[in-house]
């Protein structure tokens, strides 16, 4: 039993360094879920991912939750006249045969009231609720506090 | 300094800057800034040499903004509780500095906190430890921070959260100043990142416009 455990651990580690496999749920595929490491727990964290829709009908991301945060919300950074603002977004569309990308400076998962620090190299679960495809949990990879995204 | 005197000085500074910028011819879209009572975001920042505001850096040292004259400067506003735009800007700047290589040592690079209540020098030091060590964190008395925002024609606004917390809306661009303290240009947040390093190099070259 010892060997397979080590093998699984080694695989997990290398996958963490490179990139996680996309997760399929119905017609949707969730890919490249990542977050920046937090400095302690007092500041909110942000997480990002991409959802691809292989179906002929659009779907909507309507909910988010994670055990690392007591308040997980979809937010969008907007800029007008050079001033950045963050606004809560109720739901986000994933158009048919299209994708929804959460990325720095745009839409992001706000992880408020962190229960635990997000440590570089670790992963944490994030549950996404879609109107049509239902709920799916993905593992979010934590990169450094200055990361710009998962490595290619 | 009285308000009217500050306004007068500011208007003079903008006129002088406007005249210089007209010669360069790149800013026509913004119109002849000083002549119009345009919104603050459309006005140009004052020259650094006129910013007699004293703040504190992340090492606890007093820093007067006008002392930055003599080196080209790269300045932006942010706060360490900011989860998205600020770490993104700090990462971008760290990459630009890396790309500039040893030339970047000739720059003043500063993050001015728009949230001095939470961003003490110690908090800034802790946070900036994760980014390029050439980035200096600056904070200070809320009144002084408000003054420096005014000098940059920048804005910050406190937004209360549902859970008793708060966040800040703030000017997100990176301001570039030449070595003589005159305003060079702004790297907008959503601007194509490929233009950033050439813009910085341009500000570094035009030390005597």
From TrEMBL, chain A:
Signal peptide positions on this chain: 1-20
Record flagged with keyword rRNA-binding: no
Alphabetized UniProt keyword annotations: Signal
Family annotation (PANTHER family): BLR7088 PROTEIN (PTHR36302), COPPER CHAPERONE PCU(A)C (PTHR36302:SF1)
Domain of life: Bacteria
Source species: Paracoccus sphaerophysae
Statement: the UniProt record of this protein carries the keyword DNA repair: no
Name of this chain's protein: Copper chaperone PCu(A)C
InterPro entries: LpqE-like, Lxx211020-like, PCuAC_sf
TrEMBL record, chain B:
Keyword hit for Transferase: no
InterPro entries: SCO1/SenC, TAT_signal, Thioredoxin-like_sf, Thioredoxin_domain
Keyword annotations of the record: Copper, Disulfide bond, Metal-binding
Domain Thioredoxin: 44-209
Key word Phosphoprotein present: no
Binding-site residues, Cu cation: 82, 86, 170
Cysteine pairings via disulfide bonds: 82-86
One MF annotation (Gene Ontology) recorded for this entry: metal ion binding
Family listed: Belongs to the SCO1/2 family.
Protein name (Swiss-Prot/TrEMBL): Electron transport protein SCO1/SenC
Species in which this protein is naturally found: Paracoccus sphaerophysae
Biological classification of the source: Bacteria, Pseudomonadati, Pseudomonadota, Alphaproteobacteria, Rhodobacterales
